[in-house]
Amino acid sequence: MENSTATANNKTIAAAFGYESLQHEIDKITYGSHLSNSVCGLAVRHAETGELLYAKNADYGITPASSLKILTAAAALETLGADHRFSTAVLMDGTIDQGILKGNLYLRGQGDPTLRKSDLDDFAASLSKRGIRKVDGDLVGDDTWFDAARLSPGISQEDESYYYAARISALNLSPNADFDTGSIKVDVKPSRIGRPVKVMLAAGSAFMEVDNRAVTVSKNKANTLLIERKAGTNKIIITGNAPLGSSGTKDWISVPDPTAYAIYNFQLALAESGITFSGTSNTLDGKVPETAQLLVSKKSMPLQKLLVPFLKLSNNSHAEVLAKEMGKAVYEDGSWNSGLRVMREFLSSLGLDESRWIFEDASGMSHTNKVTASELTKLLYSVRFRPWFPHFSNGLPLAGAPGRLAGGTLRKRFKTGAAQKNAAAKTGTLTGVSSLSGYAKTKDGEWLIFTFLTQDFITPTVPAIDRLVEAIAQSKKM
Length: 478
Fold this sequence. Notes:
Layout: H1 20-31, E1 39-46, E2 52-56, H2 69-80, E3 87-92, E4 95-97, E5 100-102, E6 105-109, H3 117-129, E7 134-135, E8 139-142, E9 183-189, E10 198-201, E11 209-212, E12 215-217, E13 226-229, E14 235-239, E15 241-243, E16 249-254, H4 258-272, E17 276-277, E18 283-285, E19 293-299, H5 303-312, H6 316-331, H7 336-349, H8 373-382, H9 389-395, E20 423-430, E21 433-441, E22 447-455, H10 462-474
Parallel strand pairs: 5-7, 6-8, 7-17, 8-18, 11-14, 12-15
Antiparallel strand pairs: 1-2, 1-22, 3-6, 3-19, 4-5, 9-10, 9-16, 13-14, 20-21, 21-22
């Protein structure tokens, strides 16, 4: 629905809509800021008609970073449905005789990224109420709902130990209400001068090994604390200095084997409920037999609610779980290949140019991912007419709104000005990459769609991007 005067590689404005002054303001910001020293693609459309109002390098493929999650969220809503829930269940393949389960106990995961230790506690309490006091068999974790691939291709070794690059499994645990699945919180604080720092982890984190090399130093010294996990191991290494009186540092570290970590925590929960295992019992991976009997299960929040922490906080693990879940739903294959195939087919179903979208993950972590500003705005236009659009738009970070689950990644931006709470958009950040893509309301009360993609910059482009959004919010028809 592009205006015949609009070409995606040249800046243009649709005079019929009276936005000539906005064109001049965007030009002014673009050429008078760090955008002029970066590779950038800019596009603005009218939200009601899809008319292209402004374009600069809008057909040039640029790394979108987490702006790619716009596609992931939309495809998931279309494919899985707004009411889709993930399931986790406990089953047995034996009988219960005088409080003894004579058989194996299974914990089966089906991708729930919101599963927490408290849910495992509830499972254990339910088994205890059924009279189970001992298991004379193995404790088996079933993660076969998804394939065995744990990391998407774009994850580098230096990222692999942190929560934003957590391993993906159908059986996983989250440490907090942000649902950073597959990670644990490590809190480090000073102790006494010359002594090792204090390291605090959740009880179930004993699954990990801590190598504490950090020491407490005097107040006038710099805080140089660093927390990381040695690649390919369960060893957390803590180095550096913690000044006395400082708050220390904290980080969320990925676990090397999410399935084993979930089983470890379930075993803890069972022990806390007074349920023991025989001396010959083992904990292992496996698949629930078809004849197994369901004991207790739990469903996650629906997808429409999961979109809030997913999009507002730009949760990478949620994106990759959704991709595998889409593959499972459509092709009975919980893999990245099948999930990304579903996402590409969704683009085609909307009439978008699939060739303009290059992605090897669903989160935007890979620098190999490329998309054009024009295509992203077309997607944002198309989804406005889907029945699930209110859920999608509700998940987008709201400019300048306080609170993690309101403003999300935009809560510290647009604290003043016309764009405050009048723009909702998905951020994207990687080394040398900044993007913002979403909707903004003008002074006339009209909604415009925008995508601003930047890469290969030396000086950050976020201030200029924010000025562009503010220009849209301040604009009025001539």
